[in-house]
Amino acid sequence: MQRASSLRPSVYPPSIAVVGRMLGVVLCAAAVLPPGETWIGGSGDAWAQQDVPAESTRIQSGFIDVDGGRLFYEEAGHGDCIVLVHDGLIHHEIWDAQFPVFAQTHRVVRYDRRGYGKSESPEGQYSNIADLRRVFEQLGIERAWLMGMSAGGGLCIDFTLAYPEMVTGLVLVGAVVSGFDYTQHMYTRGGRLTAAIYGDPEALRLYMVTTDPYEMAPSSTAARARARALLEAYPGNADLEKHHLAVSPDTPALGRLGEIRVPALILVGEHDIPDVHAHAGAIDAGIPDARRVVVSGAGHLVPLEAPASFLSEAQAFLRGAHFFATLAEEGVAAAVAEFAHSRQTHPDEAPFTEGRLNNEAYQRIQSGRVDEAIELFKLNVQAYPESWNVYDSLAEGYMTRGDTALAITYYEKSLELNPDNTGARQRIEELRGGR
Fold first, then answer.
1. Where does the AB hydrolase-1 domain start and stop, copy by copy (predicted)?
2. 312 in a structural domain
């Protein structure tokens, strides 16, 4: 069950408090192509060109029937599915730099939510969660990674709680979470955003792309120009009336984040508004084993402002999730092979953090699977050869198995990198004394 939003349309300019609450959803936030096929790759603007392979990718586009309207969508690529969900200001083109890149390795779907881009505006109450479910149904998606911007990220969280079996993992960018309120500073952008601006869609669009210091970082001049062009092409994006008709989940997500059991990456721009950083912290604390990254030099619209950084973090996260899924489902030997394959294409990156793999190895030691633990410790040494701690852990693995000479060798290597590792020094003395 879902309930209608408590906000109702008004013929008068809304108060800052009322519309500010909507901005928690909205602002945390070209020619129309007919349904059919087109191609991407090899041409376009700077955002689409960032890290895009030279070869083209086929796009299928069309409309999805939802209760009381239609949603525009595009899809491309093959493989595991990624669904991209835009923020509360810019439609599906916010993902222009990412869509063709992900399509080289995945099936990628992006769509316009109601009243955005090429999708129809709502004429009655609607549910964003139900709309996203309909995207899955009509396009035959059984399970997918969800990547959501801002309010789109909040939608991805709500959808995951409603349909956990349909979500492989989450990438949440400047996301907000239902049940976590906003400060007055958020509502007014520190006094910059007035009731007069709220009441004038054109003024609101102009404010967001020229004045607001959080939506995009002050230095993001090219991204501001791009955002302005997109909003001029689709002015309805900034029309707040559609949000009066949206319904919300009966149970807010904030208190249920611990129920989410899929990998989650949380990205937030360095210059994003303080409330969004607070929401990112709450999401990070609530979702087990989530990882949070602050993107330097970006504001709220990270995919538009820092496309290369976003792609680097997201692709590394996808590789890591695949590595740990392989480890859990197929075992250590398969994970070792997966690591070797990953190093061939990304020699300077590891699909795991040092701490995460160490934890996996120590869990195996505790359950008596010492040989498996040693293999994982060895992977950590390959991935992080400058870390004294990985050698210390590998030495402990060998010591547990009774390989005294190897344990001493790796404790000595750990001491070489960190002469203050008194624990290693003590272990060496004990092992030599026990010979």
1. 83-307
2. no
3-state secondary structure of 144: strand
| 199 class by beta-carbon count within 10 Å (0-12 exposed, 13-18 middle, 19+ buried) | middle
Identify the pLDDT of residue 28. Answer: 53
Residue showing tokens 């990985």: 390
3-state secondary structure of 246: strand
What six digits make up the tokens of 407?
């344990």
Residues 293, 265 contacting (CB under 8 angstroms): yes
Choose one of 254, 277, 305: the last residue of a domain. Answer: 305
Domain that holds residue 350: 318-433
What is the model's pTM? Answer: 0.81
Alpha helices, DSSP H, located in 167-234: 184-188, 195-198, 201-210, 221-233
Round the CA-based radius of gyration of the chain to a whole number and report it: 24
**Using CA atoms, how far apart are residues 151 and 59, in angstroms rounded to an integer?**
26
Do 214 and 335 share a domain, yes or no?
A: no
- Same domain, yes or no, for 284 and 322? no
pLDDT tens digits, one per residue of 115-132? 999 999 998 999 999 999
* Residue 352 contacts residue 381 (beta carbons within 8 Å): no
Residue 182, φ and ψ in degrees, nearest 5: -120, 155
Query: How many independent structural domains does the chain possess?
Result: 2
Q: How many other C-beta atoms are found inside a 10 Å radius of the C-beta of residue 60?
A: 14
